[in-house]
Amino acid sequence: MYASQANVEGSIYAEMHRIRASAMRHNEPAGVATALLYQSGWFAQWKEGPRDALLRIMDRVETDPRHHSMRIVHSSRGPRILDGPWSMAVVQCNEPSADIAKRVDQLKSELDRGIQYSPQTVWRRLSTPMRHPGAAQQAQPDAFQRVMVCAAEGMASFYLVHWLGRHHGEEVVHRRFAGAYDLDVGTDYVDFAQDERVLRLIAMARHGLALPLTRAFLPDYSHVVLLLSGDRERDLSLAQRVAQACAGLATPPALLGVAPDAGGHNEMFALARRCGLIYLGTHCNIADEARTWQAIEPLLAEWRHDVDSGWPVVPLRA
Is the pTM of this model over 0.70? Predict the structure, then answer.
């Protein structure tokens, strides 16, 4: 994983789509998977694949005129995490470029001293604005809980995140994701203090569940909240998307369904059980964000504590 300062004129969105097209031509045949982030004037890129192919690609990337001052912030051998050839994210927030530079320098310094974490932790530390609650606690899972929210219909998940942002007086961060061939999808999140922990609630568009970057972070979530519509087909479709995204994960999140009435959970529970997933249920009118939060927050409080055990430090160029 590396970070670099962007040198792009014009639309960053258009440029990232051009980068995607080039990466699909060169990286996919070499067995290399990539996730690319743009935020506040910086690129961060996470690459996985065979050692020799990665080194050849990195030599080419280093001379690309669209960025400069490239710094390696993670380098290791380990299990493949990205299960698709390409993901990309554009983060829209008010953070100054200098704040990201501080995080990059800290990660580079730690790597030089032989200290590093999992690729997911490095990505989170690079992308979380420093002024957000718990930004310094990204690598402390006992203090930081992550919850995804998806709606079976409409924008209820995004409305809930924005209501929490207003309620707690915290900035909502807007992100756009895309896969190898998929259209862009939106995802917003808010961080806020909740009891003795920091809670990040992430609204994810339904189509975003299939993206490799989404799947890479699913084990980090304590719960995926399903805001059900009462329409059987839509609700089952959402539950099936989530179950498919969780397939094969060693530590999948618990599913928490919010239905208009208690009877809306029967088929959801049966589907989750067939897929080996935990399912919790509550009911309320999801159009009322305050009541929705009152219904789910007590269930979120019972969350597991996964400890990041670190990552093997095996430099590729050794």
Answer: yes
